[in-house]
Amino acid sequence: MPREAGGVALLSACTRAGDVPLAGRGTVMDRCLAAGLPVASSCSGRGACGRCAMAVLEGAAALSPASLREQRVLRRNGHPEGARLACRCRVLDPALRVRVRADYW
Length: 105
Prior knowledge:
The chain is globular, with a radius of gyration of 13 Å. Helix content is 15%, strand content 21%. By secondary structure, the chain is α+β, with helices and mostly antiparallel strands. A hairpin with a 2-residue loop joins strand 1 and strand 2. It has a single domain, classed as Roll (Ubiquitin-like (UB roll)).
């Protein structure tokens, strides 16, 4: 399993142009923005608007558990089960590959 420097799991964004590696640490949103991928948000990453919801294509078990607040925001906005807010989730298990997708990439 390839790993990034510092033992951080290989996180990638599945885009129309192919997978984009998301290096670094922090939330999935932080890592997407650092890679130059836009992330929809009207709450500046505070987990209130639900616009940064992403589908987890692979490695959901490697992400931090969804808080009650995140679950409420996802339900309120009609996102499918398994979706996560990029501003709220982090990669916790460096041994697993994680792939995410947003509808607008």
